[in-house]
Amino acid sequence: MTCWEVLGISPTNNRERIEKAYESQRKFASGESLSDLDDAYRQALREGGFAVADPEPTPEPERQSAPAVSAPGPTPELSARDQQVVREIVIQVEAMLNDSHRRSDANIWRAILTEPPADRDGIREAASGALYPRLKPYLDDGSLPQPVRAFLSQWFGWSELDETTSNEVQTTNDPFDDPLHRGPGAAPSEGTEGREKQPSTTSFWPAAIGWIAGLIILTSLFSHILGS
After folding, report:
1. pLDDT confidence of 177, banded at 50, 70, 90?
2. pLDDT in tens, 181-223
3. Lower CB density within 10 Å: C or N end of the chain?
4. Over 119-187, what HEC string results?
């Protein structure tokens, strides 16, 4: 195809006509067709007797190495089969998270994560990296019970779960947590609940002796009054 056919005009030495045809075609050209149109425009100017400078080559931009980005999921060292195993683990865990009963059962977690070949070190490490961002919201808001958290901590080596679990089961050694220092209405301490209150006999005899002594005194007063 000649330059004139590309421009859509017959051969001419009228520069204005050549430029007008070029601008008209350029509105609809892009990519490779635009490059062909530019070449045809320059060729038409040359054939029309006009001096045209060749375009300067566009310098290629310097290639910069892309920064390494650690994407969650299977590591490159895993085979295609192992990567598929990791993806299946993630799918099963995500499905389980939508069921509050199943996600609270540590045995179900153990069955998914420890069943071969999921128990291999490489797959376990890749599953750990893929699952942690998905499980973190559930770990932060306490949606996963302590047995599940303890298993995940042991299986994946998530040490921060060990600290959280130990804080949850800490007991206080309050020196005032005894029956003598509890206020009214406080719950009875362990071991005292259900005991029947035993009647106290230590204050019975002093009361009886005082009562008898009072009768004797009253009797003597009445005898004295009647005798007089």
Report:
1. very low
2. 444 444 444 444 444 444 445 556 666 777 787 777 777 766 7
3. C
4. CCHHHHHHHHHHHHHHHHHHHHCCCCCHHHHHHHHHHHCCHHHHHHHHHHCCCCCCCCCCHHHCCCCCC
Instruction: Tell me: cis bond preceding 72? Omega within 30 of 0 counts.
Output: no
Whole-angstrom CA distances from 192 to 195, 196, 227 are 6, 9, 59
Cα dihedral 81/83/89/92 (nearest 10): -90
The better pLDDT of the pair 114, 226 is held by 114
Rounded distance between C-alpha atoms, residue 38 and residue 49, angstroms: 17
- 5-14: long-range contacts (C-beta < 8 A, 24 or more apart)? 6/36, 6/37, 6/40, 7/37, 7/40, 7/41, 7/44, 11/47, 12/48, 13/48, 13/49, 14/48
What is the C-alpha radius of gyration for the chain, rounded to an integer number of angstroms? 47
Percent above pLDDT 70 for the chain: 65
| Alpha carbon 99 to chain centroid, angstroms | 17
Distance separating alpha carbons of residues 39 and 75, to the nearest angstrom: 49
- Per-residue pLDDT of 59-118, as tens digits, reads 555 555 544 434 444 444 788 888 888 888 989 898 888 888 888 998 999 988 998 888
* DSSP state letter for 9: S
User: CA-based angle 201:202:204, to the nearest 5?
Assistant: 65
